[in-house]
Design goal:
This protein has a seven-stranded parallel beta sheet, with helices on both faces. Strands 8-7-9-10 form a four-stranded mixed beta sheet. It is an alpha/beta fold and 357 residues long. It has helices at 14-25, 65-68, 101-104, 117-123, 138-150, 167-175, 191-204, 220-225, 229-246, 296-317, 324-330, 340-352, and strands at residues 5-10, 48-55, 91-92, 128-131, 154-157, 179-181, 208-218, 255-262, 269-280, 284-295, 321-322. The radius of gyration is 20 Å and the shape is globular. The protein starts with a strand and ends in a 5-residue tail after the last helix. It folds into two domains: 5-186 and 298-352, Rossmann fold (3-Layer(aba) Sandwich), CATH 3.40.50; 191-295, Dihydrodipicolinate Reductase, domain 2, CATH 3.30.360. The structure holds nicotinamide-adenine-dinucleotide. Nicotinamide-adenine-dinucleotide binds next to helix 1, strand 2, helix 8 and helix 10.
Length: 357
């Protein structure tokens, strides 16, 4: 067992781009610069190593990761230049349902043959696989999750597909003595995280919520991908279910949380609109109307660097099955609901070894 957190990336899109850049950026700045944890279980950012990566798109497959992360259609901000290649060639994975029909019209799928997933995963001495596939890529996600199981690797589900919160998958990972983490990454300053935080605070001080929405407009290929109705509804369901766990008295008719539209010129930017309507003392009505603008890539990477190190810690401790504290901290739909205000404390207790999972 190495002391490094060795990671396989599935999907070299905008989140992967920001993550790979973050590893380089923080290699010279190990503290400050909005890095929440300098070390997690003794692991610094420098201890995260990407050891393999899969994609399906021309311009990414067959290229060094340092080139692939800037290839079209990626739009994550370019924060630095890589002077030397990383020596990691992006491999062609199984396409399956990875690319939505609308996105397929704008992309060229690589003509290279698919690699043998399990063989490649086994060959790189990795610890974990992170799925950064597009929303709605269910069958592709299942293929990579099954390959991770066969290759004896932990699995982190960053897309809004139910793996870590699905009992069938939990049983599979537990049976193989492997950790599973997810589902649907919660960005460092994510819309769902902020929405839940505000709702919890209002609830705590005696307000009742009548109805609320948090809807995004974004650019980037994930934004275009969610123009496709089925995929948009998958994303909306997991985000809405996450809010419903916070305020169980609200019904589907009272909540909307998801993406509404795509605008190419926004690039990696996401505008999140929050609207909350409720009542406080003497049944007085109130309305909250807020907007946040963030960049998706860095927002994802800010959480990923913590989740990766905490997962490695769990592996070192021999913990298997769903990592509840790590998932509650870093994901919108963990297998067990933990209020947003307790999630950081719980994550830190896990890191300190005061909690088993
Ligand atoms: N802040 C964030 O970016 C954020 C937050 C929460 C959740 N997420 C989730 O993370 C995931 C990734 O987000 P993103 O912005 O990087 O998306 P993206 O569209 O930029 O990247 C997805 C990548 O997956 C690749 N891909 C598609 N099918 C594939 C397959 N079968 N095998 C291998 N690669 C395949 C695409 O070519 C692309 O490079 C999405 O599901 C998104 O919902 C992101």
């Amino acid at each position: 067992m190495t002391s490094k957190a060795r990671v396989i990336l599935v999907g070299v899109g905008n989140a992967a781009s920001a993550l790979v850049q973050a590893l380089e950026y923080y290699s010279e700045r190990s503290s400050g610069h909005n890095l929440k944890y300098e070390t997690i279980g003794g692991l610094r950012i420098n201890d995260i190593e990407v050891v393999s990566a899969f994609d399906v798109v021309d311009g990414k497959v067959g290229h060094d990761l340092t080139e692939a992360i800037f290839a079209e259609p990626n739009v994550a901000p370019r924060l630095l230049e890589f002077n030397t290649p990383m020596g990691i060639e992006v491999k062609k994975g199984p396409l399956s349902d990875g690319i939505s029909p609308m996105l397929a019209e704008t992309l060229q799928i690589s003509s290279k043959p698919d690699v043998k997933l399990v063989k490649e995963m086994k060959s790189v001495d990795a610890d974990m696989v992170i799925s950064l596939l597009p929303s709605g890529a269910k069958e592709a996600t299942y293929a990579y999750a099954n390959a991770a199981l066969e290759a004896d690797l932990a699995f982190i589900e960053a897309a809004p597909i139910r793996i870590c919160s699905d009992n069938k998958w939990i049983r599979k990972f537990k049976k193989s003595n492997l950790p599973v983490i997810g589902d649907d990454l919660q960005s460092q300053l994510g819309g769902t995280r902020i929405h839940k935080g505000i709702l919890e605070m209002l609830n705590k001080f005696g307000a009742t919520i009548r109805n609320t929405y948090q809807l995004d407009v974004s650019g980037g290929s994930e934004g275009m991908n969610t123009l496709y109705t089925d995929r948009r509804m998958e994303k909306r369901k997991i985000k809405t279910d996450s809010i419903k766990r916070t305020l169980p008295y609200l019904t589907d008719d009272d909540i909307a949380s998801g993406t509404t539209d795509y605008l190419d010129f926004l690039g990696n930017e996401r505008t999140g609109y929050f609207w909350i309507y409720g009542n406080y003392f003497l049944n007085t009505p109130f309305k909250i109307d807020l907007t946040i603008k963030t960049m998706d890539g860095p927002n994802a990477a800010g959480t990923l660097v913590d989740v990766i190190r905490a997962t490695k810690l769990a592996i070192n401790r021999g913990i298997d099955g769903p990592l509840i504290s790590v998932s509650a901290y870093g994901f919108k739909f963990p297998s067990v609901y933990v209020p947003e205000q307790d999630a950081v404390k719980r994550f830190e207790e896990f890191i300190a070894g005061d909690r088993a999972d």
